[in-house]
Structure to design on (475 residues):
């Protein structure tokens, strides 16, 4: 018996067009200038893929369309209500849904293989068992891991690493168990048949390891976790694409999986971390950092006002603005762009420096600055602008603690040790906006820049402080 019913030529062509549009979408999303076109290509490609799939299935269309309407309605409401500060946990939450979708498709295929055309006289086809086992395992890991990431990012669980006793042995043992059982399930038709006990054990172990892999990871490393889970969700979708015999799903899953893996690798390099340690779990945990639960040690510091900051920047030649999560929380990006425009009118050169892991997800700061219409040619990545801090007059830091912390270069006991940072301490003057001196960054580490002789602390809500600076500049 053939594994799959032949797909009509027009459908194959439609899926190919959708796949090309998905590739163009990823290409467009690689740059702020082309991101809108990338989004449009992705939307058009998905519409073609969904429409083609619906056209190929004449039964149950009412239920499918109803499900799409309900899901789309929920998505629309969430998109309207969600704040940009909550985007990282939203992404983690959506990753969990992708993982669970893969699990449910795999379970449905196992319980009713005839509907998926994946059976012959000996039972479920071997290749289908491989796809099914991998899809369910990866999907379950993605689901439970994403739930933990969501809880950490949303503050419902401590961002600090939760270190289980013998966690590496536990993770390795569970992983080996999943691989062995999946191998038996895939190669032994007799073991794969029956009441499905073997598959349910694989599913349970996968849910467990998804939790044990993510809970030891510190909050400061969550951007890498998000991109890693994004990759997992893609591979789960690709595996289920084979089970569903859907070319567009295979292409989309492979694109998401590979791009997420590449992004994870890039993020690890940006933080001077090991990619293998991320996959193995316990990433960033050995030093005990993570989570904004620490308390800053009270030392002498220089406090300033909005008028002081406005005067200093008006008389500067170059100002480099360093945004961080504090900017996102206070939604200060629009006021920040207005401040930059006023400084440029005064003849000041204004640039924005973005650390790869500033915020809580890859590209978090870039999205916020683009939302406030900051010109793309004023925004620079760490490696392109870091050498300029030594020659700039003012480094204006707005809520970016960990990515500007020089302890990453000097303190081997620090959880952020080895992470490349923005060298703001080299500027002639550092203006550092912080709500108060009582807290620390998400990694739980105090920042010596706060107490440096060339630093002026601007203690207030970031948005209010920037708005007051704008008023002072306008006088």
């Amino acid at each position: 018996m053939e594994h799959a019913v032949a797909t009509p030529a027009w459908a194959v062509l439609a899926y190919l067009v959708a796949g090309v549009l998905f590739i163009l979408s990823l290409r467009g999303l690689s740059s702020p200038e082309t991101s809108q076109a990338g989004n449009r290509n992705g939307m058009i490609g998905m519409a073609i893929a969904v429409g083609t799939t619906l056209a190929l299935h004449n039964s149950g269309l009412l239920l499918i369309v109803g499900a799409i309407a309900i899901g789309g309605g929920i998505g629309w409401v969430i998109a309207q209500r969600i704040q940009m500060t909550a985007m990282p946990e939203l992404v983690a939450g959506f990753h969990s849904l992708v993982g669970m979708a893969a699990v449910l498709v795999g379970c449905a295929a196992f319980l009713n293989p005839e509907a998926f055309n994946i059976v012959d006289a000996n039972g479920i086809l071997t290749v289908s068992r491989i796809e099914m086992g991998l899809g369910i395992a990866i999907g379950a890991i993605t689901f439970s891991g994403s739930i933990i990431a969501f809880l950490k990012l949303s503050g419902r669980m401590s961002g600090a690493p939760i270190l289980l006793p013998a966690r590496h042995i536990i993770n390795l043992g569970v992983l080996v168990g999943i691989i062995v059982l999946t191998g038996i399930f895939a190669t032994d038709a007799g073991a794969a048949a029956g009441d499905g006990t073997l598959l349910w054990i694989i599913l349970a172990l996968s849910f467990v390891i998804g939790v044990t892999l993510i809970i030891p990871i510190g909050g400061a490393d969550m951007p890498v976790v998000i991109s890693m889970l994004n990759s997992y969700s893609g591979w789960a979708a690709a595996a289920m694409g084979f089970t569903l015999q859907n070319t567009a799903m295979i292409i989309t899953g492979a694109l998401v999986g590979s791009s997420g893996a590449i992004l994870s690798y890039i993020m690890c390099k940006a933080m001077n971390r090991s990619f293998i340690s991320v996959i193995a779990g316990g990433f960033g945990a050995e030093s005990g950092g993570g989570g904004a639960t620490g308390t800053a040690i009270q030392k002498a510091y220089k406090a300033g006002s909005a008028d002081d900051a406005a005067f200093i920047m008006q008389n500067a030649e170059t100002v480099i603005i360093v945004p961080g999560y504090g900017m996102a929380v206070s939604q200060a990006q629009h006021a920040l762009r207005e401040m930059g425009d006023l400084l440029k009118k005064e003849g000041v050169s204004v640039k924005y420096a973005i650390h790869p892991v500033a915020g809580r997800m890859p590209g978090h700061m870039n999205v916020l600055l683009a939302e406030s219409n900051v010109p793309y040619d004023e925004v620079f990545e760490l490696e392109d602008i870091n050498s300029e801090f030594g020659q700039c007059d003012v480094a204006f830091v707005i809520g970016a603690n960990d990515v500007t912390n020089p302890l990453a270069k000097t303190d081997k006991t620090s959880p952020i040790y080895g992470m490349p940072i923005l060298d703001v301490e080299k500027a002639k003057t550092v203006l550092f906006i912080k709500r108060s001196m009582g807290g620390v960054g998400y990694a739980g580490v105090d920042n010596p820049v706060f107490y440096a002789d060339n630093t002026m602390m601007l203690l207030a809500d970031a948005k209010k402080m920037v708005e007051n600076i704008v008023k002072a500049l306008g006088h």
User: Anything to note?
Assistant: The beta strands are 119-120, 123-124, 318-323, 349-354, 379-381, 394-398, 429-434, 455-459. Residues 282-294 have pLDDT under 50 and may be disordered.
